[in-house]
Amino acid sequence: IMLIHQNSKIQVLATSKSTNRKIGAAIQLWIVPRSKTVTDSRRDKSDAKIQCKGCKLASNKGCYVGSYYVDATQRAHWRRDETPATVAQIIKLVSGKFVRFGAYGNPSLIPLRIMRLIVKHASGYAGYFHDWHLMTPAKATNYGKYLMASCEPDNRADAQKLGLRTFTTRNATDPIPGNDIDCPSSRGVQCSDCQLCSGTSKKARSISIPIHGYQAKSASRSISA
Question: What's the predicted TM-score (pTM) here?
């Protein structure tokens, strides 16, 4: 576990192993609250104001990420009490590797200078930010170069009007919206091989995926509300 960045509210932690079969081999970045576990932040709903701002699935309303796994990563870091990594350490970690921005949380909380550094040295990357609609258009465009605008069916068109590529969660019974394509993971393609979710730096169609994860029923209600 490496501490990539921190401020008074959040920490960005990097792990070098992925057990998610959909992702494949990847450096994963977790955006977590600095002073409490993810589970606690979901319980008191502070996640919706900080690391998951803008997401309808925050505060246990359908997020597919299991909080206890992220808690364990946080606690492992806290035991080490690490200081933020140097530029050289970050480069060494990501060089020639596929990077997943935001295995949990909004990667738009990572400073652009760090994101650009990682993109420059990684072999590929993917990421999603859910707070695009709370930003100025210029800021959303800057992050949208590297990240997909994470959307629901009712705001997908708004993101695309800003020139962003979108990643839209839909109910399993709903058709793929517009000119989007279904996420290749449905065909068994791993993110580390696909690499389509890399914002406007990739000239490709936008993507949609059916609701999934252990809170799928809650997620369906949340995106339909």
Answer: 0.92
